Amino acid sequence: MLVNGVDERLKTTLREVAEECYAEIIELEVMPDHVHLLVEVDPQLGIHRLVRRMKGRSSRLLRQEFAWLWSRLPTLWTHSYCVATVGGAPWAILQHYIEHQKNV
Residue 97 catalytic? Predict the structure, then answer.
């Protein structure tokens, strides 16, 4: 768990952005140095736009609300991200995988 409620604020922010972009977050887990997301995105929007909006807004809001992030991290996000398509895969298996990442 991240310090002082940052993880909960991050989850809230990511859900808000997804809702505004008509994307559905199916599963979300915040790790100490990355985030696992299972998200359904309209192909017209594109995953790259959703990720850019999520990273941009969360970086701005978290640094405004948690000033200590400025001194502890040079940047909140890197420019990179990993995307894998899961068409046809059972949602339950993917959700289970993401839910249990903290126990690995």
Answer: yes
